[in-house]
Amino acid sequence: KVFYPASLLEEMCESSPSFSSAEDLVEAGFFPTTPITYTEKDAILYALGVGATERKYVYENHPDFAVLPAMIFATIFKGDESSKTLPFPPPQLLMDLDIFKGKVIIDAERSMEVLKGPLPVRVSLSDKWGMKTRFTALTPKKAGLLVETETLIVDELAGDAVLRLTNSLFFLGKTDLDAAGSPSKIKIAVPDDQQPDHTITEQT
Question: Which residue intervals define the domain Peroxisomal multifunctional enzyme type 2-like N-terminal in the entry (predicted)?
Fold first, then answer.
């Protein structure tokens, strides 16, 4: 398998065959893999940014220093070096294809499934980690189009998929595509015998 830098993926999207239907997008399968890198500093900045207070997530010398699994979503917006941030929309969101251009985009829903963990505290280019994304469903709505994608985080050296990310975006005013693919049904498994760890009651 070949890793493509983000700039090359952008060029490939621009020069790829024109997608004229929702079925074309779903049948295209996974787009090229792009590399993932992050450092301990990246992990700490993400943890602080989302309000984490446990020392193992915000102090690199903690004996149990760890990376919040959700940080992997942030790597979609990073380049192939730790210091880079990609312009919006980043290539792996697949929003910059001609078929979508010119529409207002609303972020909808995200979920993550850990297939192999925990995440390492740093990943460099030599580790050959990458992400690849495909369209899984396009569903017309009254006000626009709901687009769902699946992103796999892969460890190429080990040959393993590490995480599976599902993303959905709403393209306001996009009404010229038919339905295609299988819409996801995100389910949260909660043990029947487990009581809530914390509850909040608000009067309305």
Answer: 37-173
